[in-house]
Write a structure and sequence with these properties.
This protein has 8 helices and 16 strands. It is about 30% helix and about 25% strand.
């Protein structure tokens, strides 16, 4: 299976974990031996962090590949993939590292496995600098399934910064090929809904305040739609540690989905968290694209793998998206069509 090794510079463009996720997933899928150098070179703590390491080890195990240089702090790895197999695979960051980012690297691979797969992903479900699991379930899932596959996402336990402790189980059957998608017609907004949550020792009033502040903020701009944001107290047996946050989703007449989300931090009042999520949603609705800024980059790898040309209409193209396109073109030799 091994051909010439593909050399990837992990320090260019976005310069973070995303380069590692896109390049190792494509390496695994396409059977391309890979070397990634200067991993996370631009970050304050360069090299592999626990969540990157657990993702790499999972990809290695998915295909019985060989992985060298994979340890915390390492800035260079080599990876030689073999045949992708299904079955049960576990990745545990042992931190609040994002389970959603573990899903980003592993899901494209098991789409083309020999048999159905179950991914047991452990870490943070609602973590900073990553999609919240609610975004993955409520926005990413219905849109990515337009490529012609389905998956089940079972949130067993929610986990927050700094302890993590969350667990999500993803089950999916393989496909022969992916269909291209066309997301260029945004339509008009028909529904706005969401959830504001508290977990652990945080009082329920915080959830209600986040929701109310978000609704007030949205109503200033969108007056003719009912905004339904449910305050939620996460059950004690389904959440590990303390956390609060909110996600708000807008659905359009053509089935497009946009989101705004925010997580609470110590010392930040609930209103501010709600307003931040509402303003993010409104900004995503103003740009006129058919996907929001956080979905763009997550779709690129599926666009590269689909049979035929996919088109998505975006707002401003993010650095994460430019990075994903760059490495999809380098490894898969595919072009993606984005319109702004």
């Amino acid at each position: 299976m091994a051909g010439p090794r593909v050399e990837v510079d992990g320090g260019i463009m976005e310069g973070g974990g995303q380069i590692l996720r896109v390049s190792t997933a494509l390496s695994c899928l396409l059977g391309l031996p890979l070397r990634v150098q200067k991993i996370r070179a631009g970050r304050s703590t360069p090299g592999l962090r626990p969540q990157h390491l657990s993702g790499l080890e999972m990809i290695r195990d998915l295909c019985d590949g060989q992985l060298e240089g994979a340890e915390i702090g390492s800035t260079e790895i080599t990876f030689t993939p073999e045949k992708i197999k299904g079955g049960v695979h576990t990745a545990d960051t042992k931190t609040a590292g994002s389970v959603c980012l573990l899903m980003q690297v592993s899901m494209p691979c098991v789409l083309f496995a020999a048999c159905p797969s179950e991914l047991r992903l452990k870490g943070g479900t609602n973590a900073e600098m990553a999609p919240q699991i609610d975004y993955t379930a409520m926005v990413f899932k219905p849109i990515v399934e337009k490529f012609g596959f389905t998956f089940n996402c079972d949130i067993k336990m929610r986990g927050y910064y700094p302890k993590g402790g969350g667990e999500v189980i993803v089950r999916m059957s393989p496909v022969k090929q992916l269909s291209p998608i066309n997301l260029t017609d945004r339509g008009c907004v028909t529904k706005i809904y969401g959830r504001a949550f508290v977990a652990g020792v945080l009082p329920f009033k915080v959830a209600k305040d986040m929701a109310a502040a978000a609704v007030r903020c949205i109503r200033k701009e969108i007056r003719d739609l009912y905004v339904n944001i449910q305050p939620v107290q996460e059950p004690k047996d389904q959440a590990f540690g303390n956390g609060n946050g909110i996600i708000i989703i807008a659905e359009t007449s053509t089935g497009c989905l946009f989101a705004g989300s925010s997580l609470g931090k110590r010392g930040v009042n609930a209103d501010k968290v709600g307003i931040e999520a509402a303003e993010m949603l409104l900004a995503n609705l103003r740009h006129g694209g058919a996907v929001d800024e956080y979905l763009q980059d997550q779709l690129i790898i599926f666009m590269a793998l689909a049979s035929g040309i996919s088109r998505i209409k975006t707002g401003p193209v993010t650095l994460h998206t430019q990075t994903a396109i760059h490495f999809a073109e380098q490894l898969a030799k595919h072009c993606c069509v984005l319109t702004q």
